[in-house]
Design brief:
It is built from eight helices and nine strands. By secondary structure, it is α+β, with helices and mostly antiparallel strands.
């Protein structure tokens, strides 16, 4: 099968690629120049320039207090100036929802949910994906970025994801973060031929995720 057929076999039939990653696999080692441009609707990864440690992250209880205006405490907000959610992923894998840093972190989903979400998303953008290929092979990303046919990716934002997901129980707002473009080291595009591999890596022991709460972020649903 060619590249496009393999991708379609994944999102239509759920066929996994031949890929057995080690735990906490790092994607996105590509070095092409397009990695510096965030295009909505595409998957990326990066390493935070300034690592956020667990002691800079609120617990789940503190998070609940800060988001509830009636219980909000100024001292608590001042204690966590950088992070308002009960985790921080210093090496996220995210679906870009804008050109300025908004992204949906899929790495924090459980593996079955991650697969379900990715397949759903690929089905929703299947028509646009077809235009990314020529004779079943991915067109060079630099050329793709200049193709007007791919402008439809710019409608991929959080509202779009919520509307088409069919997964109403996912805590999407908890998974969305505004990443600082200036703090992204090694920003890398995870291109479509690697996207079917994203759910196969287990991140349950990933030390790049800073958290102090006892609940499992990997069962977000």
């Amino acid at each position: 099968m060619n590249q496009l057929e393999i991708l379609k076999d994944f999102y239509q039939n759920g066929t996994d690629p031949d890929f057995s990653p080690n735990p906490n696999h790092v994607f996105g080692s590509n070095t092409n120049t397009s990695k510096t441009f965030l295009m909505p609707g595409h998957f990326y990864t990066h390493l935070e320039l300034d690592i956020i440690s667990p002691d800079q992250v609120p617990t789940w209880d503190e998070y609940e207090m800060m988001k509830n205006p009636s219980a909000r405490e100024d001292s608590l907000i001042e204690r966590y100036p950088k992070v308002k959610k009960p985790f921080y992923d210093n090496r996220p894998i995210f679906l870009a929802l804008s050109t300025d840093g908004f992204g949906l972190n899929i790495k924090l989903m459980s593996q079955p949910l991650r697969k379900k979400f990715i397949r759903m998303y690929l089905k929703q953008v299947a028509t646009i994906l077809d235009r990314c290929y020529s004779d079943g092979t991915l067109i060079d990303i630099e050329k793709r970025l200049r193709m007007s046919e791919l402008s439809a990716f710019y409608r991929v934002n959080l509202d779009f994801i919520k509307a088409v997901s069919g997964l109403p129980d996912i805590k999407f707002n908890l998974l969305v973060n505004k990443y600082n473009r200036e703090k992204m080291r090694n920003l890398s595009l995870i291109d479509w031929d690697d996207v079917p591999k994203l759910h196969l890596a287990n991140y349950s022991t990933d030390k790049m995720i800073s958290a102090r709460s006892s609940f499992s972020l990997f069962e977000i649903k």
